[in-house]
Amino acid sequence: MIKVYGIKTCGSVKKALKFLNENGIEYEFVDFKKEPVGCDKIDKWLEKVDINLLFNNRGTKYRTLKLKELNLDSNGKREWLCKENLLIKRPVLELEDGGVIVAFDEEKYREIFNYGT
Asked: Is 10 tagged catalytic?
């Protein structure tokens, strides 16, 4: 079964869940605020996707922590993702085949889940 990671109040997460529901795709939702993910999970995701895709440098949390001023490298970004899950670009989908999708892109979802436009 697909696992969807995110927070319920996130607009992109809402769009992704709506897409999955409308297309009858079963999933399990994991809320970062209730069940934070650790470095092990993040490292597994980073085997499949680039750190710059997973790290959200446009969100409120990034701005409030003033991380732009730190000019983080990949290791620094990974450390921040481990300790502050709200810096993870949402949603993150773990597919049954082991694939990982970051963010919501309806066209990409249709292609992956074989639903025509």
From this structure: yes
